[in-house]
Amino acid sequence: MENNEILTLFNKYLSKKRLYLTFARQQIAKHVSQQLVPFHAQHLWQQLKEQGTGLTTIYRTLELMVEAGLIRQLPGGQAKYEVIYKRMAKEYFRCEQCGNWTPFPSNEVDGELAVIADRMGFSIKTCSIILTGICRQCRLGDKVSEQSNFQQQHPGSH
Ligand SMILES: [Zn+2]
Description:
- The protein is α+β, with helices and mostly antiparallel strands.
- It has helices at residues 2-16, 23-33, 41-48, 55-67, 107-119, 136-139, 144-153; strands at residues 39-40, 71-73, 80-83, 91-95, 101-103, 129-133.
- It has two domains: 2-83, Winged helix-like DNA-binding domain superfamily/Winged helix DNA-binding domain (Arc Repressor Mutant, subunit A, Orthogonal Bundle), CATH 1.10.10.10; 88-136, Dna Ligase, domain 1, CATH 3.30.1490.
- It has seven helices and six strands; from the N terminus they run ααβααββββαβαα.
- Zinc ion (ZN) binds next to helix 6.
């Protein structure tokens, strides 16, 4: 489903620029949409070169996908990209008092982590960050009912 959406949007963007969704571009976009974690252009090439897709074509297509706002290039100058379209949030603030999970925008954090991981020779498969604390509503005392719920569920916690 998401594949088709990315392909559809990419196709729309290309026709706006009077470019065609060639077979190579289509294959690249398909593969990109399956990347759940940041990926190297070279890695994509490994998967696609058998069907005759050149590295230059991959770089150009990735550039177009960046322009289209579907992916972005990560800092670090290593031609590493990640899908940003409809990215599933895996980074949250969790309120200890009311139990709310609030996703936070984490593109910058992810970019930084990817750079650090690269530097340490570590290949990231998944990433999830949960920061616990007290949410604004609880800090301001707006969530009195949930707060008392919490205390009922946790008798004896001081
Ligand atoms: Zn709260």
